[in-house]
Amino acid sequence: MSEVNITLQEAYDLAFSCLMQHGCNDENAAAAAHRMIQAEGDKCHAHGLFRLPWYVGGVKSGRVNGSAQPRVNKLASSVVKVDGDNGFAPLAQKIGHGPLVDCTRENGIAV
């Protein structure tokens, strides 16, 4: 087997287009591709493009909602709940991050 080197941007483009072709919408594909490329850049390949077939398989099989629209609910002053809408974690984490940080700033702690 030969080795192929591509830039992180090329890797992102590959992951994004592959996810789009297999049923993800823009927002979900971008979040998942971004997370994989962050891992590749950090040399944590087990969480990088290695995971792309798993992401695609999840959408193709219907186990994962490729068009998920995660929602944030503030349950208490320092409790934030994110409903991921059966989608991939990266988009839910992205959407929930800001409200979690805000709660932490307001209360000194948040979950």
TrEMBL record:
<dbReference type="InterPro" id="IPR043143">
    <property type="entry name" value="Mal/L-sulf/L-lact_DH-like_NADP"/>
</dbReference>
<keyword id="KW-0560">Oxidoreductase</keyword>
<comment type="similarity">
    <text>Belongs to the LDH2/MDH2 oxidoreductase family.</text>
</comment>
<dbReference type="InterPro" id="IPR043144">
    <property type="entry name" value="Mal/L-sulf/L-lact_DH-like_ah"/>
</dbReference>
<dbReference type="GO" id="GO:0016491">
    <property type="term" value="F:oxidoreductase activity"/>
</dbReference>
<dbReference type="Pfam" id="PF02615">
    <property type="entry name" value="Ldh_2"/>
</dbReference>
<dbReference type="InterPro" id="IPR036111">
    <property type="entry name" value="Mal/L-sulfo/L-lacto_DH-like_sf"/>
</dbReference>
<protein>
    <recommendedName>
        <fullName>Ldh family oxidoreductase</fullName>
    </recommendedName>
</protein>
<dbReference type="InterPro" id="IPR003767">
    <property type="entry name" value="Malate/L-lactate_DH-like"/>
</dbReference>
